[in-house]
Amino acid sequence: MNVTEFITSRQFLLPAAFIVGGFVLGLILERFVLLLIRRIFQRSGRAGYRTVKNGLRGMIALWLTIVGLYIATRFISMSPYVQSIYERALVVLILFTVTLAVMRITAGLVDLYIRRAEGALPSSTIIGNILRIGILLTGVLVILTYLDVPVTPLITALGIGGFAIALAFQDTLSNLFSGLHILASRLVRPGDFIKLDTGEEGYVVDVTWRNTSIRTLPNNMVIVPNSRLASAVITNYYQPVREMSVLMEVGVAYTSDLDKVERVTTDVAREVLESVPGGLSNPEPFIRFHTFSEYRIDFTVIMRAAEFVDQYLLKHEFVKKLTRRYEEEGIEIPLPVHTVHMERERAESTLGY
């Protein structure tokens, strides 16, 4: 049989028709399914349609094309052994692609829920990766079971090998479980501004299976192993709330009218909080006198900022406005002065007069 006769024969036309028909039907059915899923999400008012769409994109057309290939084998003459291998390969391909689709959709929806839900676990790479690996391993076990591969001895071997691997990778596993502990405790979450006892401070960018990334204010990245972060003393400026007190130390001369100083200073603090982004005028700012120092009376100005980085602009504007206002009101901010008293007679005798 030449090529022309083969192309026009039933042995070629029917298999090709099933393959092409499966592909075309898959494209049509995929559009219909995605449209139906979109309507369901819109009616329920839930987010996640894009995640499901990205997970199913191209998959339905691929599955129906594989079904067409499976049916096409019925019209192609081949040995039973080859046909059995061919059919098993198609089933394995379907199982593997279904696993990939489930993995993408499930991990995407979980990540979306974590980002949106109040009080849920923080969004982090480590959670999504563990979920993806778990689904992928489950799919592989299903495929091995379908291929009649003994799974029990394999799991036993993996358990024994896992024990040896655990001994060899103690540091890696320590970082992994430390990262899970950090996320589960919710004391440090991606997006929080923290300061370590070693001095590093910045925003927590991500918690991976090995380390935690912290972006400092100069826009550098500090990489801290999870095991070290779990044992470190941490100041979290976003816990329990982001709002924080901003303390400014000021001192005035002993001759100052303290009632006037209190009134003027609180007026300036109130003006700054109302005009500078990140300032919170409720509760009202206030001051507290606390120390008689060598050359002045010291007090603390207490203001409120929306979050940690807002304090820098607040302090900047407060110093400028307070200095200008003190000059207008005649309030003195004294400098340290040391006065030396010498008796004239003793000084003259010392000089030999």
Would you identify the regions where 5 or more consecutive residues have pLDDT less than 50? Answer: none
Oligomeric state of the chains? single chain
| Helix-residue proportion | 55-70%
Rg on CA atoms, Å: 36 Å
Our count of domains comes out at 3
Helix and strand element order = HHHHHHHHEEEEHEEHEEEHH
Give the structural class. Answer: alpha+beta
Major pleated sheet: 5 strands, antiparallel
Beta-strand residue percentage: 5-15%
Mean pLDDT: 81
Strand order of the largest sheet: 4-3-2-1-5
Number of continuous helical runs: 12
- According to DSSP, the number of beta strands is 9
Quick tags:
14% strand; single chain; 353 residues; four-stranded antiparallel beta sheet; SH3 type barrels; alpha+beta; Alpha-Beta Plaits
Report on the architecture of this protein:
This protein is of the alpha+beta class and 353 residues long. It folds into 3 domains: 3-149, no CATH class; 186-236, SH3 type barrels, CATH 2.30.30.60; 244-329, 2-Layer Sandwich (Alpha-Beta Plaits). Helices cover 59% and strands 14% of the residues. Strands 4-3-2-1-5 form a 5-stranded antiparallel beta sheet. Strands 6, 7, 8 and 9 form a 4-stranded antiparallel beta sheet that branches. A hairpin with a 4-residue loop joins β1 and β2. The protein is elongated, with a radius of gyration of 36 Å. The mean pLDDT is 81.
In short:
By secondary structure, this protein is of the alpha+beta class. The protein is built from 12 helices and 9 strands. The strands form 2 sheets. It has a 5-stranded antiparallel β-sheet with strand order 4-3-2-1-5. Strands 6, 7, 8 and 9 form a 4-stranded antiparallel β-sheet that branches.
